[in-house]
Design a protein that fits this description.
With 285 residues, chain A is mainly α. Chain A has 13 helices and no strands. In chain A, helix 9 runs antiparallel to helix 13. The chains are: A mainly alpha (285), B mainly alpha (326). At the A-B interface, helix 1, helix 4, helix 5, helix 6 and helix 7 of A face helix 1, helix 3, helix 4, helix 7 and helix 8 of B.
């Protein structure tokens, strides 16, 4: 490539690399700025936020905005609801999804192809289209404004994705391992529990975390189904922050930071697994 | 359920060496006869039918009913045939909304794919530490919940103390101090598009980067030996190999952007003017703001049917990939 490099300080290859690195740094700065601006604002006292010329670093860093946000009405209740809803939906769906994924990855059965197609297609159905019927159906049985209703609807938010990803993780475990265990006297179920399960466990953790992130970030369903402020989730709490009394940017950014922290931490831990799960074999097609 | 699986496995204990060999040769043929797999998928099927299938059926039937406030209280709609559909199709507002949604989707998906492809290619050319830094940054943005993202962009584009107005003025792009970005829907949609594209870039570029890394190095090398330049390599070697993944990413992006709701709704503080109506916002407004659930359902049905075309291509591509190794 760089054999025709000109006789200056740097070869052509080196200059390309330098240019790429500089562009990379610029792209990184541009992409990360909004996130940085949220955190920086969250740590600034009010007078440093409301300035015509922006203050680029929180020089007089303070925790006042965080204390303010946490002390606002319904923050703690809504945070608790977010945890309850997310964990309940997650526990149910991971069990259901794992069983289905084992069936799809390890058994041939009539209707398997149809099931796989449905699992893929279902992820394409806009959630917004389901709000009206889900709201009216839950209203009919008196389950609007209850956490149960939201937990049920969140199953459909995370389940198809989980079946799909877990199937990928299970397929990657060689069947021969289980067969060997069966020859050594394990039952089929025993082989699952002793051989497959430990090998798929990291995949289970990664998938649950991804489901956690989706459920934690969801907004529309919670917004429509939960009316009482003490029953809402953090997403809804955050979205209604502005409308309550003008905009207090400091506490809002602190609240936003607090809402984002759990998912960002989880995501950074699991991203490698999830990306692999999503794209496995994509190029081979 | 576990008990059932165990019984089945126990009942099938091998009795002789020959049978053992037979079983090893054709394990799936044997499994086909059992109840096991059906019991395993049963819970998932029940959830899919109850929380997805039944509501979709309800949506379709609601779209054929008049369902206003009175019907909401009575929990009973009034059948009106295709009246909701004729009503929306003869409504000029509806067609404006369709056009707006399509235009938004085209611009947002186009920008996302372009920028994400450039970033994915860039990731392959930067030094290793920078690669790790950029990837982590992208993942970080990917994880930010939509509502949090909207709040950040609202703050950056605030008319009074927003950093963007200051920066544009400082860069000499004009006088932007106290410029309200949401007075004109076109400017408002510019902000919303930037926000949506910013949120969509990480998934697309990381997926593309992962796919690029799987391209056999020999193909690129041999093309270069034959005298191809960077652009020719990208267009004649990289793009054809990545075509399936491009198709998948474009379909996904179209489906996500066409139904965008949260970004618009929250950005305009739950009170978007009619100039901000997209399909999802329009359907939501008809249903939950002016309690015309029948009309709202009809709009949703049209959206789902329109996206079904895209879904078809997506599913076909995915099934090809899935069925290959099996």
């Amino acid at each position: 490539m760089g054999t025709t490099g000109r006789r200056r300080g740097l070869t052509r290859r080196q200059r390309t690399r330098l240019l790429a690195n500089l562009t990379g740094l610029l792209v990184f700065a541009l992409l990360m700025f909004p996130a940085y601006w949220m955190v920086a604002t969250a740590f600034k006292p009010g007078r440093d936020i409301l300035r015509l010329t922006p203050q680029w670093f929180p020089v007089n860093a303070t925790l006042a905005n965080f204390i303010d946000a946490v002390g606002r009405p319904f923050f703690l209740e809504d945070a608790r609801n977010s945890v309850v809803i997310t964990l309940s939906a997650l526990t149910i769906s991971i069990v259901v999804a794992f069983l289905a994924a084992v069936a799809v990855a390890r058994f041939g059965f009539r209707g398997r192809a149809a099931f796989v197609v449905i699992i893929i297609a279902v992820q394409m159905i806009p959630l917004t289209a389901l709000i009206i019927p889900l709201y009216l159906l839950l209203d009919k049985v008196g389950q609007t404004d209850t956490l149960t209703g939201v937990i049920l609807t969140y199953l459909i938010l995370v389940l198809p994705f989980m079946v799909w990803t877990l199937r990928g993780f299970i397929i990657n475990v060689p069947v021969e391992l289980e067969e060997a265990a069966q020859i050594d006297g394990c039952t089929r179920f025993g082989a699952f529990m002793r051989v497959l399960f430990p090998l798929v466990a990291p995949g289970l953790v990664a998938t649950s975390m991804f489901g956690f992130i989706q459920a934690w970030s969801e907004y529309i369903m919670a917004y429509v189904l939960l009316n009482s402020q003490e029953k809402q989730t953090l997403s809804v709490w955050l979205a209604s922050f502005t409308t309550q009394r003008g905009t207090d940017w400091g506490p809002l950014m602190a609240g936003a930071t607090l809402t984002a922290i759990p998912v960002v931490v989880f995501f950074l831990i699991v991203q490698r697994n999830v990306v692999t799960g999503l794209t496995a074999g994509a190029v081979k097609g | 359920m576990c008990a059932a699986v165990r019984t089945e496995a126990a009942a099938a204990e091998p009795r002789s060496r020959t049978e053992l060999v037979l079983r090893r040769q054709a394990p799936w043929v044997r499994a086909r006869r059992g109840l096991g797999p059906y019991l395993l998928v049963a819970p998932a099927v029940i959830v899919l039918v109850a929380v997805l299938g039944y509501p979709l059926w309800t949506l379709a039937s609601l779209s054929l009913q008049h369902f206003g406030l009175k019907e909401l209280i009575a929990h009973e709609g009034r059948f009106v045939g295709l009246a909701n559909y004729t009503s929306i199709f003869s409504d000029p507002v509806f067609w404006t909304v369709v056009l707006r949604s399509v235009a938004f989707t085209v611009v947002a998906v186009g920008l996302t794919m372009l920028l994400a492809t450039l970033i994915a290619l860039l990731l392959g050319h930067v030094s290793r530490p920078l690669q790790v830094l950029l990837t982590s940054g992208l993942v970080f943005i990917w994880a930010i919940p939509p509502v949090v993202a909207v709040d950040i962009w609202q703050w950056m584009f605030d008319f009074e103390f927003g950093v963007v107005n200051w920066a544009l003025t400082a860069l000499g792009a004009g006088h932007f101090i106290h410029h309200n970005w949401f007075a004109l829907p076109l400017e408002g949609f510019t902000v919303i598009t930037l926000l949506v594209v910013w949120g969509a870039i990480p998934f697309v570029s990381i997926t593309l980067f992962a796919a690029l890394a799987q391209i056999p190095r020999e193909l690129v090398d041999s093309a270069q030996v034959d005298g191809a330049n960077g652009w020719q390599v990208f267009w004649s070697v990289t793009t054809p190999i990545l075509k399936p993944i491009f198709l998948i990413l474009i379909s996904l992006s179209i489906i996500w952007d066409f139904q965008v709701f949260t970004q618009i709704w929250v950005m305009l503080n739950s009170r978007p003017g009619s100039g901000y109506f997209t399909m999802a916002v329009y359907s939501f407004f008809e249903s939950f703001r002016i309690t015309q659930y029948g009309l709202g359902s009809a709009i949703s049905v049209v959206t789902v049917l329109a996206l079904l075309v895209v879904t078809f291509f997506y599913v076909r591509q995915m099934v090809r990939i899935v069925e290959a190794p099996l």
